[in-house]
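Minutes, project huddle
Topic: does the predicted pose make sense with adenosine-5'-diphosphate bound?
PN asked that the exact inputs be recorded in the minutes so nobody has to dig through chat later. Recorded below.
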Amino acid sequence: MANPLEGLSFQNLFDAAADAMLLANDLGQIVEANEVALQLLGYNKAQMLGLKIEALMPERFGKQHQHNREAYSKKPEKRSLGKGRELLALRSDGSEIALDISLSPIQANSHRFTLVTFHLADQRRQVEEALKISEERLRLAKEAAGLGVFDFDYKQNIIHWDERMRDIWGEESEKSVSYKKFVAAIHPDDRVARQTVINRAIDPTSNGEYSVEYRVINPNDGVERWIATVGRIHFSAGQATRLLGVARDITDQKILEKTLQEHRSEMESLFKQQVASQTVSAIAHELNQPLAAISAYSEVALHAFNDANFSPDKLKHALESCVAQAQRAGNSLHELLAFLQKGELVTARFDLNKAVKEALNITKDDGYGGFNPLLELEPNMPDVLGNESQVRKVLVNLLRNAVEAMRGAGVPTSAITIKVSTNQTLNMAHVTVQDSGPGLDKETAKRIFEPFFTTKPTGIGMGLAISRALTEANGGQLWLEQNNQPGATFNFTLPFAPQLNQHHVK
Ligand code: ADP
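Predicted holo structure (tokens), as shared on screen:
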């Protein structure tokens, strides 16, 4: 009887096998490959034959493999590789696939070969592995973010939750909780708002997502915590079936927000108080002088009546002066309010030298005369641009301060030098007011522009603060010059008005 296997070659078997097979010689070179193997690894036969086994695995494993192969050739035996761990192979297109691999030694004549049989690693195992890794990553991320996870089953009306959630809700052991108990721990004031948000998400026309913050009171210790939850409703046939969500403890953040808010309102009310008292003080500063003058003129008028040599002219002058001072007070208030309300600053070009002379007259009229004014005015000074009445006010304030300082120190020959010049560097008009008073010590000098700072018994301490604000509003600067000269030297600048003859140049 003829042998039924006669004519069946090794090659026939090799090609018929369901598994992928490669035959490698003892140098690790591939000498034969079946169709399944070629397909799995993406090669044709001509490319495959002669390749080193190492060429079929990711480069990073190459060295280790060479070592393994040498060890195997010393002790060749049937062996399964990759059980319980992934063996990766490199396809011709560079992609990697996980394989289960078996090795069997074959001896033919005096040559030793290794038959490598392989197939794709169990798909299910691969998916399980991937899932395990992804779950692990999720768990780590959840832990790092301090997140609690919960899953509300609408049908059974219970919530499954993790340890972090139980921790917040003060439930130690149960892996699930009734919905009623879950809600009972929520702060009564927050329940309605929370329910409203969830109701909106339960509406099947919505995308089912919601996010809400509420307080949870731990029933064991009464501690209140703020929770931020984000979740999604799952629907089946238009009905909500599940609510999956995560919760985060945001108590610290809430406390911080509250403290910040408190600080802010405290600051706001302090600021309002400050603004109110500064406004009142500025008004007082403006009214002080005219009121003092009105009082003085009224006394003159009263005396006139009692005077044996009654002079109607004297009485008339006193009463006219009262009227003028009252009007001045009214104007001052008007201007001050306009300035405080930051209305549009009315500016015009004016002659600064003239403004200085007017300010000197006002100062004298206010009872601050009796000093020797030394004027150094730049002739043909170009006009400046600003609010003339405000600039006059600055000058009067500086002059009055100078007189008060000199009087306070009892300077016998009091003089004030007023210099008006062009500051070439800044291209601005520059005014210097220098008195022959005691000057200022370093500590005082640091604070004189602060509102309410005064060293005078009846001072208000707003004069320089207002003067600086007025100068800056007019586009200039006001500062105290620190020099070694006697007395105090104040400086301020103002912008020049555009030159008239440049109008047509464009
Ligand atoms: P007040 O005149 O009401 O004190 P100011 O703001 O005008 O308010 O001035 C603040 C302080 O600056 C004064 O109390 C005084 O100590 C100091 N000061 C201002 N001008 C001079 C000056 N020319 N010489 C010396 N000290 C001055």
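Observations noted during the meeting:
- The pocket of adenosine-5'-diphosphate is lined by residues 401-402, 405, 435, 437, 440, 444, 448, 453-456, 459-465, 488 (CB under 6 Å).
- The chain is about 45% helix and 25% strand.
No decisions taken; revisit at the next huddle.
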